[in-house]
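seq/struct pair 1
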Amino acid sequence: MRCPSYPSVNPLMTVPAETIRVLLVDDDAEIRALLLDYLRCHGMAVEAVENGARLRERLPSGRVDVLLLDLMLPDEDGLTLCQWAKQIHPTLPVIMLTAQGDPMSRVLGLELGADDYLPKPFEPRELVARIKAVLRRGAAVAARSLADKARFGSWTFDRLRHELLDRDGTVFALSAAEYRLLSAFVEHPGRVLNRERLLELTRGPAWWSATAASTWPCHACAASWVIRPRNAR
């Protein structure tokens, strides 16, 4: 029994938002048909094109979650297309499919932005696993990126650089104590934190715990000055 398929017109634009949307580029009609059916059986929405020209028409026009890109195409090589796709969508996962198994092609593909490389012939189950793996990696990177920066009002708190930026891009360097204090507020939005709780959340090295009780009000004052609106200073 064949799996139910999505509509043939603009399939990547007419499916539920949570569905994985795959764009396949391969000049082999048999491989396209096989992967269309197999990936759809695994709940993915798949659209297939046969050459680089069609890819260049299709990619900018709608959402794609994963690009499956054949290395050897009749009109343009996959490495050039991979580099172009990453320029259009820098975070788009690209899996290269190729019968060309030499290590240099793989290395070059990865250097040009490919996220994974699958030599032909391959087991379709492995392709499904690799699609899910690159999406997991992308989600993890996005989550880390969001966690690294917190925004409130007109301010951006860069937790990697220990800096606070205002709307105009002015940078305020934070001391270690100010950084921990601001982190405590950011990690507990909308909550009132008393002095003892703040001391617990901002506990740092040994020197901090020994001096926190006497110096914490100064750090709190400094942090409040940093994030105070400019016209209130």
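seq/struct pair 2
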Amino acid sequence: MKIHEYQAKEILKQYGVAVPKGRVASTPTEAKEIAAELACSVVVKAQIHAGGRGKAGGIKIAKSPEEAEKAAAELIGKCLVTYQTGPEGRTVRKVLVEETMEIEEELYAGIVLDRSCSQLVFMVSTEGGVEIEKVAAESPEKILKERIDPCVGLLPFQARRMIYGLGLKGDQFKSGAKFLSGLYKAYVSTDASLAEINPGRPTGSGSQQVQPQLHPSGGQRGLHG
């Protein structure tokens, strides 16, 4: 089972992962109202079960409530075709309207189950914003991995090692460790088959601008922390 970005962010918030302020809208009028409440530049993001929305025109920046309304009108009802949808595409029914944040760099974080050894694999990379399969094929050395015993869970030294490998320092180091811990807790609590943040963007305030995918398995993963 796949869930939308806005739903994944609500789950991540429950586990201490900082996400931008925002809400989902089903109409252009709702998008305008949300943008007015946020009182800042916003990003309007098509909500479909597929990655690659940015390159397909499914993510738009709006500097005013009126621009947010226009962006939502252009997206809602549109058939969006990305590298994950196939040629038939997916129809956009809702958009996420959220505050924009200063971006310093794009990172990747993901958790999957390695059934061959009944362990979880936590992966991070400085190559956020790029399909992780492409990074694995072309620059595998840029993916850092930690194997996690689900009976023990993510250990603090493992989180610190990954954050150190990403080159984060100071406040970003502290918030990054909390971020990875929260992502792991969300993955386990939802019995997910995949948890992926691509891209994750540390900001100057230490908060996280995240674009998550969280796929609850409906109990099919068969491995619990």
